[in-house]
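Lab notes, practical 5.
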Amino acid sequence: MTLTEKFIADAIHLYAGAEIMYGSDQMYDSYPISFPTVEFQLTATDALTELADGIRLEKDYKPMFPRDGSTDDVDNDGWYDFYISISKLPGKNQDCRLDNSISFIVVNSDSDDNEDMYEIPLTESEQECIFDILNQQCRKYHGKDCLTLLAEAEKEMME
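Output from the prediction step:
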């Protein structure tokens, strides 16, 4: 395991109280094409929260959690909800793919960006590592891997 993989493994955890959300998405070529998706809510770990705070600080919003011991300039009432999805594009030879970012929503904040959505971009190697972690956690908590969950989403979409 590399250092990056260790950090990702510590940062990415399925949110225990959340349901897996089956769905579908669309893309437009010459006509709309639907494809199955499975969305997971992630636990707001320190690492994800710190990344989210950093993204919002660049836009001059207060962080949700104190950094560097400073508690004066913090949005104490808000939090973040983190999400990531897997999908399978149409076609026989398409593999399951992970989103190229982790989305997060600002919740219960007094700031102007309350309920706004942001993204934490992921490199290809980070996507691979996160997909492996999601697979392990899905097997552990749901008794199914990501491909099985995606097949269930596809079946549900067809019904």
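Observations recorded by the TA: The longest strand covers residues 32-42. The longest helix spans residues 124-142.
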